């Protein structure tokens, strides 16, 4: 790869931005398209589709063969709450290709014994998220049912453009959450991004079933996510 393109690609990776290396199969020339860059025509449509699918491959653009190499930041899930649902979600997420971090300041719940080999952070979200900020390739699942623990990461997820924000709780519980978020200055459009009650509506009842519903909701949101626009921050 051209050293200049490699430097650009490494910079995109460092910033957790997606990129597509577009190479002509006729003359070998390449260009790097970083998510958010305005590209029109057939190339723009193909790049958008590849960024959503994450799949590299060959394609004909304007009658000429090209190969598109897709580089996506590793998608991750940040779970607030070391609860039974989190125990079920952790191995499922790994199988589906997501990194998963569990944050819970309650040391009685956040124990290595309950999450063997898991990325477990026994700190308040306010502290944990300073070290590892949320971003557009992160899904946030708030599962503690405790506003003192859940509200801050939910607010940060909305501000950070997380591709998924979900929160456990009944509609009544979410109604109170909405009131608190509005008091913090969030608008209806921002709050509407929260999946609450969390997960796809499949009639889930057990922790394992709820974990399946959450993971399916996250995957759906990831594959249908709105891509960054030219000039957007993040």
From TrEMBL:
Annotated XdhC Rossmann domain residues: 77-218
UniProt feature coiled coil, ranges: none
Pfam families in alphabetical order: XdhC_C (PF13478)
Protein origin, superkingdom: Bacteria
Matches recorded under PANTHER family: ALDEHYDE OXIDOREDUCTASE MOLYBDENUM COFACTOR ASSEMBLY PROTEIN, MOLYBDENUM COFACTOR INSERTION CHAPERONE PAOD
Protein name: XdhC family protein
Organism of this sequence: Ciceribacter ferrooxidans
